[in-house]
Amino acid sequence: MYHNTMSMATGEDDLHWKNLYSATSGDLDLKRLEEAYKGWSETYDEDQVKMKFNGPHQAAQKLSSLMADKSKKILDVACGTGGVGKELHSQGYVNIDGVDLVQDMLTHAEQTGVYSRLEACDVIGQGISCPDGTYDAIVCVGAFNQGNITQAVFPELLRVAKKGCIILIVMREAFVYTCPDFKNGQLDTDILMRAQNGIWKYTLRETVPKFIGDLSGLLYAMEVQ
Ligand SMILES: C[S@@+](CC[C@H](N)C(=O)[O-])C[C@H]1O[C@@H](n2cnc3c(N)ncnc32)[C@H](O)[C@@H]1O
Which CATH superfamily is domain 53-224 in? Predict the structure, then answer.
């Protein structure tokens, strides 16, 4: 299985990771994925601290360097318990919405008090209930992973993005090479093709050290045209 090589480094040998990986190792099964996150929601935040998950902070810092106006409207895709929203708020952003598949994760996100609107939905299969062209920035952190968020989400992100919207994705770097949905350059090719077709400008692709523990992340930024 694609994840095993990293488990010792991040504590992924624990029960919640096992449930998650078991839910995402075969064909996409949203019910199992939902159950896995539902069972994790209570301890998710403390586990992120233990695993030294720096992705939310790194994403918020990067957005701050790309989008100075703190009143702009941001969508946090797969917001989970709200770690990214908290970091965006610390950077001064005040207009943040979040969407996630799992209501139990959103219940924690709501408690952060930093989101204007939260919605439970499968962003790929159902989409988000908001008008076209709503957001100035869209962030997705730690959710590009097998059986979670994949490049299949791009049409919906582009629908809800305004012209000029910054789309920021931060994920574990190794997943680009190991996850069946991304490997052999599939994710990079999809992003590049959309850039070549004038859908977005491909602004950044950079490695982020210590995304989770000592493991690197990969950050993509695109600007919708
Ligand atoms: C590893 S967590 C990351 C949460 C948060 N972004 C963070 O940085 O802590 C992945 C999240 O993706 C959500 N997710 C996975 N597939 C989804 C989908 N199709 N639609 C919406 N959310 C999804 C899960 O419910 C989970 O909360």
Answer: Vaccinia Virus protein VP39 (3.40.50.150)
CA distance 98 to 3: 27
For 143, residues 6+ apart whose C-beta sits below 8 A from its C-beta are 77, 78, 80, 149, 171
| Tokens of residue 35, six digits | 């159950």
Tokens standing for residue 219? 């950050």
Q: Residue 109 has which token pair?
A: 């996100």
For residue 122 and ligand 1, the question of a CB distance below 6 A is answered with yes
Residue ranges of E strands in the chain: 74-77, 96-100, 117-120, 135-141, 161-172, 200-212, 215-224
Q: What is the pLDDT of residue 2?
A: 43
Which atom belonging to ligand 1 lies closest to the Cα atom of 84? Answer: 8
Mean pLDDT within 192-221 = 97
Pocket probe mutation, ligand 1, options 41, 102, 112, max atoms within 8 Å of Cβ: 102
Three-state DSSP class for 113?
A: coil
Q: What is the pTM of this model?
A: 0.92
Query: Is 142 a pocket residue for ligand 1 (Cβ < 6 Å)?
Result: yes
Among positive and negative, which fits the CA dihedral 188, 190, 195, 197?
positive
Burial (0-12, 13-18, 19+ Cβ within 10 Å), 209 = exposed
Taking CA atoms, 89 is separated from 41, 59, 70, 111, in Å, by 21, 12, 9, 14
